[in-house]
Amino acid sequence: MLALPCAVALLVFPTALVSVLFHYGRFTDQDVRQTVAALMGYGVGLMGLVMVKILAPGFYARQDIRTPVRIAVIVLVLTQAMNLAFVPWFGHAGLALSIGVGALINAAWLFIGLRRAGLYRPSPGWGRFALQVGGATAVLGGLLGAAAHYIDWIALRSDPGLRVMLLAGVLVGVAVAYFGLLRLTGLDPRQFARRA
């Protein structure tokens, strides 16, 4: 439930995050831009990385270690091939993008394998859940995108205290909006914190 908003934040709000965390001392404006490019590449694949951790145990539970390993090896080869294509276009960010796209391919392949083997059947309600989380994430992304557009995070280097307070305010605001929308659509986020 939180992986998707985090991935969106890495894609639409990376300059603020990098600026507040690293843009001090010898870390220049250009360094921020270079780091942001790589971070966005990883943002592309964050959902894939999370889904691999969720889907691979579906094979392990049936004592099938070979299938996820075989998929991972093939995806590793594909990732290296993507490096050859992406690095000339995007430089160092192409490496991160290759890893991100590779993670998405890996997750999709595992999901398709589980479905074809009949090991996974979505329960009723997953469609509604996806719409609830997707809608709230779209609003979160729009708010973060607006904050990224209207606040010059790099120029605020001269006032780091203000920059930190603005970031905190934006993050708290979008978190309230995200969880508030989930609540309004009938999804109680607290149910995911319960332990069996």
Verbal overview:
The structure is a single chain. By secondary structure, the protein is an all-alpha fold. It has one domain (3-192). It has helices spanning 3-12, 14-22, 29-60, 66-90, 92-116, 126-150, 160-184. Helix 1 (3-12) packs antiparallel against helix 3. The longest helix has 32 residues, at 29-60. It is flat and about 55 Å long. The mean pLDDT is 93.
Keywords:
196 residues, mainly alpha, flat
Number of strands: 0
Largest sheet, strands/sense/barrel: none
Distance between the termini: 18 Å
Number of structural units classed as domains: 1
Question: Could you tell me the radius of gyration in angstroms?
Answer: 19 Å
Shape: flat
State the low-pLDDT regions, or none.
none
Mean pLDDT: 93
Per DSSP, the total helix count is 7
The secondary structure category is: mainly alpha
The fraction of residues assigned to DSSP E strands is under 5%
**H/E series, N to C?**
HHHHHHH
Determine the fraction of residues in helical runs and give it as a percent range: over 70%
Assembly category? single chain
Any chance you could write out the topology, listing elements then pairs?
Blueprint (H helix, E strand, L loop, with lengths): L2 H10 L1 H9 L6 H32 L5 H25 L1 H25 L9 H25 L9 H25 L12
Helix pairs in contact: 1-3, 1-6, 2-3, 3-5, 4-5, 6-7
